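Trying the structure run again after the queue cleared.
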Amino acid sequence: MSIAKSLFIIACTVLSLSSPASATPAQRPRDADKVLIVVSSLDKKTESLVGGYWFPELTHPVEVLTEAGIAYDVASPQGGFAPFDGFDLKDPVSMKIWVDPEHRNKLGNTLKLADVNPADYDAILLIGGHGPMWDFVNSPELARIVRTIYENDGIVSAICHGPAGLIDVQLNNGSLLIDGRRLTAFTAEEEASRQYDKIVPFELEAALKNAGATFEEAPIFESKVVIDGRLITGQNPASATALGEALVTALKNAPEAPAQPGQPPRPE
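Done. Tokens:
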């Protein structure tokens, strides 16, 4: 059992706040915004290091979404419990999300990507951590969901290593989603500074550039968010809150329904 999973079980027992969990997305009014948050299912990146997603990269955007009254679901490639790294309850935002049973149940009972209906969502957010470098790439289910949300005039967002899930997303016109687009992600310099470049299966920055993206970056470990129409990306964990705010702003400023004939579509 991974350390993250052990922490999850222990904390759930100590807090004793959970109501019966369900992996079924709640029904919502069709005029209400809803975001699909996607996390990795990878248990380990090495024999001694947990994989999964980076906990505060999820909790900080979730706090922003919740305060804005925007609903969300959490999904992963395998569904169910999703392993996580960077679990630190000294972070007041992570503590706030963790002790709330509704939030915590979503983290422990993620939807399986294969069961997700993209039409239920106005935006998608791909969370980082190193797990996405393995199970976000070459994922037909994730590519299907990203493509459908985007082509339904939805918003695609990702943070840190989350953009790994955008590399091979092909639109129905045959073009790659990120070809010619401005974006950011965890940089090659940031990876090397922690010696994770020796662990990950490929260099994310180079792969995004090879897919045609124009890569932008701030100095190492500083916050940066890049907005290119309906594509919003954050560089690293320090960017998590700012990315959540950019996503909320984009949702609030978007048309309430897909464009009808004679009306302009949302910006690409």
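The mean pLDDT is 89. Worth checking whether this holds up in the mutant runs.
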